[in-house]
Amino acid sequence: MSETAPNTLQYRFDGPEDAPVLILAPSLGTTWHMWDRQVPELTQQWRVFRFDLPGHGGAPAYPSGSVAELTERLLATLDGLGVQRFGYTGCALGGAIGVELALRHPERLASLALIAASPRFGTADEFRQRGVIVRTNGLDPIARTSPDRWFTSGFAAAQPAITEWAVQMVRTTDPGCYIAACEALAAFDVRAQLGRVGVPTLVLVGSEDQVTGPAEARTLVAGIPDARLAVVPGASHLVPVEQPAAVTDLLVRHFSTAWQPAYDSTTGQMAAIQAAPVKPVLAAAPPQPAPIAEIAPAAVPPQPAGRPDPYDAGIKVRREVLGDAHVDRALAQADEFSGDFQEFITRYAWGEIWDRPGLDRRSRSCVTLTALVAGGHLDELAFHTRAALRNGLTPNEIKEVLLHAAVYCGVPAANSAFKVAQQVIREETTPEE
């Protein structure tokens, strides 16, 4: 067990001290206990290192809002322990950390396994919406629906104790850290960089995973040059819990045969791999799997000299604040007559003003809501109320903004604004059953 500083993570070791280190990383809403069934066998060959995400499993609530920051906190923890080289297995958000390690710190990785992972987890809107629900209702709605996302219906019905364990695990997570982790997943997108992952990689997925399923797994395998795919039958998203024996067997085979030698400082290269990675084969898999295609990394367009065009920053900020669905709809409706206007507001409203560092986005949302009330722009007030929720304002804070606007903009204007905002808040903060 560990003493945890703000820039490190809560961790534990199992297994012989002189064995090579194998890291098991959790998914959002879980703790290191999701790997309990794998530890007895893995510790026969490795010193197993497990960690909790911030605010999970009783870990101190020091939120991290990006995958890169979580990765640096993991490396700071390992540096403090003198662990320089390791194998790594990560589930979902833990898998995102694994990809970040492979891209930014390949010299630290001996081998990699990605479980229920994806180069992009759904859409940014989905995770920001989840953050809105947690900010408004707490974690209980997310906790109650977790078994539906994590397990097949048959497993959940047959294993009520594990199902309740899953619900309680989410309920006891710190809400602020959960929201920060949602923001990290919302911003994570390495689709164009997969070709640079140079470590032997196993991509493992449950056949019934509806969150990051076989399609996402095949995208990873197609993009990572030295990757192999294993699909575990009868398992959903939290496959290490639902099918522990199959997952343990696949991990043992992968890390036993695809452990890349250390970086050779005399040659500036990795030493040759002694044993080629073995493609994991489950009982249900065909004896001769089809070859896996390799995709070259996407070409990076040359950057123009001088001041960058604010359009690129503007479209990014516009999507983050208003959501992909809203922006896609606005751009799709643009024609020869209105297209220049869409480009104008993207470049100047979003790229020049919203992207300025002088105010944070919460403050800009407050200013925008007040201005829209003053102008009577109720259509725009609706989607900027949604934007305010994404930017971190609570419904109570939005109410205070509208009350303040009633004094300075007029009661009739605020009365109309309250009706619009009330409907939006109900839609955005009501958990889906």
Automatic annotation (TrEMBL):
Q: Does the keyword Glycoprotein apply?
A: no
Cite the Carboxymuconolactone decarboxylase-like domain residue spans from the record. 340-422
The terms under GO molecular function for this entry are: hydrolase activity; peroxiredoxin activity
Keywords recorded for this protein, A-Z: Hydrolase
Domain AB hydrolase-1: from-to ranges: 20-129
* Alphabetical list of InterPro entries matching this protein: 4CMD/NDH-1_regulator (IPR052512), AB_hydrolase_1 (IPR000073), AB_hydrolase_fold (IPR029058), AhpD-like (IPR029032), CMD-like (IPR003779), Decarb_PcaC (IPR012788)
Q: Which NCBIfam families match?
A: decarb_PcaC (TIGR02425)
Designated name of the protein: Putative 3-oxoadipate enol-lactone hydrolase/4-carboxymuconolactone decarboxylase
